[in-house]
Amino acid sequence: MYNLAMNGDKLVLKVVEKGGYYLGVAIAGLINMLNPSKISIGGGTISLPLYWEGIVRGVKDNVIPEFWNENILNKVKDDYKVVALGAIRILE
Length: 92
Known about the structure:
It contains four helices and two strands, in the order H-H-E-H-E-H. With 92 residues, it is mainly alpha-helical. Strand 1 (39-41), helix 3 (51-62) and strand 2 form a beta-alpha-beta unit.
């Protein structure tokens, strides 16, 4: 699926974007309950075309409007290493 998405397969990209959208819906629910100032998202899936755009759209469509701002969502810079970095912090 990764290769198909990276090569622009329209059906796969539609599924990827939809998956991102529904993650955005879940994140919007968390924002609505907890009102955080920032949400950081990482992992390899973020690199798929249209996934991030789907997340953003899912949040925007479902968050309480007063809680939305353009800076609330951000990508973790070392997204592939995020779990390992968290484990290192726990061990320190």
